[in-house]
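> tool_call: predict_assembly(chains=two)
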Amino acid sequence: MNTTLTRLVIALGLTAGLVSAFIYVQVLLAQNAVDLTTALQTIANREAVANEYKVVNSLLEETVAQRNELASYIIDGDTGTIAFLTALENRAVVYGVMLVDTRLEPSPQTTLTYDALSVSISFSGTKRAVEAFITDVEAMPYALYITNMTTQRQSGNGGVVEVSGTLTLLVSAINIDV
Amino acid sequence: MLLVPSFVLVESQLAAYESQIVEAEAMASEQALLVTTVEEANQRAAHLNAVAEIAPTQPYINRIDALAGSDINLTQISISRTELLVSTILVSGVATTRENLARFRDALLAAEEFTAADLPLASLAANSDNAFIITLTVTPPR
């Protein structure tokens, strides 16, 4: 009787142990299945992002030249300011216009995206030269426009009309202290 | 005990996938940087388009010169903008006769670039050598 009872208790104990182990492994497995599903979903999402990354990356590689050109239209810091002023002065020389005075001032903008550098210049030259100069300045490869301009005309020798005046340009700029 | 192989398999798969996720996350952060670059370029392009829409000043001067002809001696032109638009142009000069000055004012009024050409009546008092200042109001672009 005692032996039978002992065996029964052992068998019951073993069965209980096996059932517990089975349940434990099943719970772990279920948890891993959830983790696996989440991981697969995450990978799928990341793959979509990676594909988009490739598209954006190739787009950027193809548009390096255009983006550099876009950037060149906006003055960038002191170096950009010097380059712009040099280009302006070279144009004046080409047209035979004398630049008497040049003043710079940062100009915070509210209407446009970028702030601007205000460039005020005084100039003089023949009417034809000044007109050609101003036309060319307004067409310079920069994001700029003339905010105000005053010109005076005087008849000079041989009927040539001499023009003197002042104008203020606003040139879009980044990395300047406004 | 039959579930143990499955458990081991799933565990190993999870480990493999986790390394893929780490790689993909690194790529995603790089992509965010690229997107910023693209957005910056778009912003610049939009800005340049906006500036390109701003009318230059010299065509207005050319137009005034063309309408003045030889009977009007222009001595000063002042152009100013309100916000981004050329708003007002002050034109000073001397006309050979009052008739020529009135004709010049009428020609400016008829030009599509200008909506108003204000000439003080006193400018027409003298019979000849009429000094004048005309205030032009510029037509806003459509």
